[in-house]
Each structure stands twice: as structure tokens, then as C-alpha cells.
Amino acid sequence: MRETSAHHWINNDYVAGSGPRTPVINPATGETIAEFAHATAHEIDKAIEASTRAQREWWAMSALDRAAAMHRVADRMVEMSRTTGEVLTREMGKPFRESNWEGGASASSFRYYAEIARNEQGRVAGPAIAGQLHMVVKEPLGTIVSIVPFNFPILLFGWQAAAALAAGNAVIVKPSELTPMTLLTLMRAFDHLPAGLVQVVTGGAEVGQMLVAHEHTHGVAFTGSVPAAQAVARAASQRFKPALIEASGNDAFIVMPSAPMDAAVRGAAFAAFLNCGQVCTSAERFYVHESVYDEFVSGLAAMAKSLRVGNGLDKIDVGPMASVRERDRVEKIVNRAVEQGANVVTGGRRPAALSAGAFFEPTVLEVSHDMDIMHGECFGPLAPVCKVRDLDEAIARANDSQLGLGANIYTEDLAEAFRAVNEIET
Fold it and tell me: Which candidate, 80, 87, 11, places its Cα nearest to that of 52?
């Protein structure tokens, strides 16, 4: 398969798509590097027919043979990590070292679940009534729909697909419109499995909806935004399909007076700016004790200024946003914060020297908790910092959110640390 072709991966082969085409844009350069086809209903039916056959063959294999096959997948993923990493960096923009890391990290999921599946088959329970035999037998659902986002397509695909395969299921994955070529390239790691066991069909939300609603798919794994998650959940519920859903995050990051400031600043920069802030568990709300607030803001701003921004294939720290649309969305968030009284300490604009791409500078803002920026997912290289009086206020602010996923606290006081663990509602 050429990187510029518009194919699906169906029945262990690249199949030319007949649906409408959409370009794939390199966000660092603005250049079109590929195009993908939106799967038609007929193509989806063909993929599901193949997955049904393959799943029966896969489940008929011994657990030892399935585990060995999954370990071979992991080996192939590691072997291909440089190739898939380069494709991912061109599609999505993240630094190559991060893209290259995804292959090995995802491979670890396949090894982990291969071993669980080999050893976990069910159990026999004692009878509740004399003469009865109670057995718990673990069986696959059938065909699982995997819908993965653009920010970590290899890693999140691994988290979803490895567990599904280990349980004896087939998987059809619908990648993000921004990163279809990465998973299509990765499919060579699966070509030794039964034909149709792991497949890729490309397209937009309409393709995901057709897959979820199809009468011959049996479960859904989804990672993405809250609106998309709600749409997937509604579609799955119509057929009573189990759905594993991870949606938006808005993680809090608390800094207390006892925290080693260098460690807190480094941790904050990593939590805010990794992958250009496009991580579901990025820190997006910083609550800093008033006694160390100025020192923290100054240190984080200096760290943000020191980060090298540029093309992910070069020696840089922060790449572009995944698309111009994503960059424009983050820019609007910053502009709205400024309208509401935020102070931009550093960043807050597009780098003049990188105008061809979807770049946005790592940004540190001084804000108040009531600003819009503190109450929705930013999903960009933004660190809004809010001053708090004490841990009580920090925890209350952290809990004042409709989103969750994670939280951070920097302190050397174990009592404060455990209070945060127990009282932050994520």
C-alpha cells in the first residue's frame, strides 16, 4: 500500500475504497500527504462478513496458540515502530520520538493480554443445590468496533484491540480522519492472523455510526470527545451492545507550599505540553497555593519559553496541533480567556516563523476559576494557573468540573497527598 492511496484493510488485504475521498494534511507543513476513502455500507458489510468468519476460526484455536499469535503481533509492532512512527508524525505532528514510542508501548498491551487469555478461561463453582454443577465459562462477544482518536492512535488501538482479541473476539477499527494511514500501515503486523480478524475501515462519524448500529457487531470501544461519546452510547444502547467509553478530561494540577518547585515546574510542563497538550489526561487547570504562586508561574513560563516548537521530524520538543481546525479552536479559547480578564504570561499566539503549519506556542495564563477556560477541555498547549488560599479551596476547585479522568498534587506532606487522593472526585 502506498501512503497516498485510499484503501481499507479488509480480509487481510488493502482494498481500494469506493466512497468519497478526504485529504490527509501534514499539520507541520500544510501539505497533502495522502487521502482516505469513506467506507460505504457495502464495504462495511464485507468487513463484517469477514470478521464473523475469522472470529469463529480464532475462537476455535487453543488459548496457547492465540497467545503465541498475539506475541507475534507484538514482535511485528516493535519491528515496524520506526515506520509507523514516521507516518504518525507526518499525519498528526507529534515529535518522532513520541510516535516511535507508541509502537513499543502498544506492543506491551498485546503481550499483557496474551498472557491473561492463556491462563484465564473460567472456573467451576460449588453447587447451591445438591446434584447441580455450576461453571463460569468465558466466551467472546463476536465482532468489536474500535473507534480511536488522533492523539495516540497506535497506543489506544492497542489498549482496545489487544483485550478484545485475547478474549476471542474480532476487531474492526475506525481510525480518526486525521490519522488513518498510521493504522493502515500497522496492519501488516496482523497479516498472519485469520483473514478478517483485525480490519480497518476509514471514514468520518457516519462510518462509526454504521459500525456501531450494525446488527452483526457486538460491542464497542471508544475514545474521543463527550459529544461523540454520547452519540456512540446512544447508538450502542439501541441494540443493547456493551460499550466501553472514555471521553474528555479536564485534569486539575495542585501545587502546595512544600512541593519542590523545580519538580513541580517540570511536572507541570510535561503535563500541560506533552503532545502539544493533546492528551485526555493533560493537566488543564492549575491551582497553586498563594505563597508559591509567583515562583511557580515564573518558573513554568520560563520552561514554556525554552521548549523548541517545530516539525516533529526535527529535533524539537513540541510539534503542531493535529490540524488547523484544532489550532483555531485553541486560539479561540485563549482569546476568550483574555476577554474575561486572563493575563497571558507567555505564548498565546501562532509562531510567526511557522506560519505554514498548525502551530501554537506553549502558553501560560494567569486566570480566575470562573473563566470559561477552566470549565471545558482545552486539548491544547495551555496552562491556565489560578491562585488558591489553601488545600480546601484547591480541592473544591478541582471538583467543580463536569469532566474527570485524573488529577495531580505536588506536595511533600503525605496528609495533603492522601486528602487529595480521597477527596478529589475523578
Answer: 11
Say if strands 134-137 and 122-125 run parallel, antiparallel, or are unpaired: antiparallel
Instruction: Give catalytic residue positions.
Output: 246, 280
Report how far apart, in Å, the C-alpha atoms of 330 and of each of 93, 250, 253, 357, 412 are: 16, 14, 20, 14, 34
| Residue-wise pLDDT tens digits, 310-366 | 999 999 999 999 999 999 999 999 999 999 999 999 999 999 999 999 999 999 999
pTM listed for this prediction: 0.94
Q: Which residues of the chain have pLDDT under 50?
A: 1-2
Kindly report the length of the chain: 426
Grid cell listed for 306 = 525554552
Can you give the pLDDT at residue 4?
A: 53
Taken in order of first residue, the domains within the chain and their CATH numbers are: 7-246 (3.40.605.10), 251-423 (3.40.309.10)
pLDDT tens-digit profile of 84-127?
Answer: 999 999 999 999 999 999 999 999 999 999 999 887 767 777 78
Phi, psi (5° rounding) for residue 255?
-125, 120
Tally Cβ neighbours within 10 Å of residue 128. 7
Distance between CA atoms of 196 and 44, rounded to whole angstroms?
Answer: 12
Regarding beta strands 382-388 and 283-289, do their DSSP bridges make them parallel or antiparallel, or are they unpaired?
parallel
Contact 162, 189 (CB under 8 A): no
Of the candidates 233, 102, 121, 292, the one whose C-alpha atom is nearest the C-alpha of residue 179 is: 102
φ/ψ of residue 404, rounded to 5: -140, -120
Give the pLDDT of residue 137. Answer: 84
Residue 389's pLDDT is 98
| Residue-level pLDDT at 1 | 46
